[in-house]
Amino acid sequence: MIVLSGDQMDALMTDLRLYVPKSLQVLAMLNNQRNEHRKLPGTEFVVDAYPDYSVCMSRPISTSPIFPWGAFQGVVIFCKNAEKLRAVLDQEDFLDWSLKIKFFAVSKLDVFPVVVEKCRRKLDAQTIARPDSIAHVFLLHPSYLEKTELPRGYRLGVLSPHHAEQVNEEWKYGNERTLEYVRYLISNGFPTSAVFTDEDELVAYILHHADGCMFNGFVRSNHRRKGLYQVVNHDLTEKVVALGQPAAWVYVMDSNQPSQNSYRKLGAKLVDPEVFCVDWIEYTPHKLMGK
Known about the structure:
- 29% of the residues lie in helices and 26% in strands.
- The protein is of the alpha+beta class.
- It has two domains: 2-134 and 277-288, Aminopeptidase; 139-270, Gcn5-related N-acetyltransferase (GNAT) (Aminopeptidase), CATH 3.40.630.
- The strands form three sheets. The chain has a seven-stranded mixed beta sheet, with helices on both faces.
């Protein structure tokens, strides 16, 4: 196992670009980590070998004074070879299996089955995984997205830290623990897009995860069907690509047809699920159940 230094991260990003879209999540995380303001505190990146790696993983540092928040104590994995990943997970120094681990948006086709197999061999832990569910991945780039004009009576802007509470309250998964994360993203250089009325009411927005994914797109109910969702998605896509990502990306659950339709209407490109789609795995040692 090798913990990557800054120069090694730069070299790895060059190689990871060859594997987009599958590598886009780890690539974006490395790109953000190399920026002084867009780092995710308490996170490090490890590989099985360097420079000829087969597995690259971001993982939380449990001893860090700043440990990633709540649901974002996640592990993100890119692998070129499933058998290499299986061997890596059998090395006890890659992950601390005494902790709760959320494997965040991992590739359903190769990473997911290997990780589930490893977790379920741990008889002193519970593993939550959904073999039949997937989240589809859409790619977004200004060169092919439809641009929607902002209607009269609205202005385009960005989120400020004082908007964090509203955003967290309106987020389907928002809770006390996610509020700090939302506030951190808004305050530390992660791009956002927002639409305000002429009276300065925040009515639509979208944010950018530390893993490069655009998330939590929202439009207040009395301002829907005006193209505001398309406006903030296009605006944030431009900002994300300007940061050095090959493309912006989102994941949408298979059951969420309205969001899928919105991204198709926008012109986003659906990645063939036989090539790349994602899901989540939650691993909890029995001794930590309920904590």
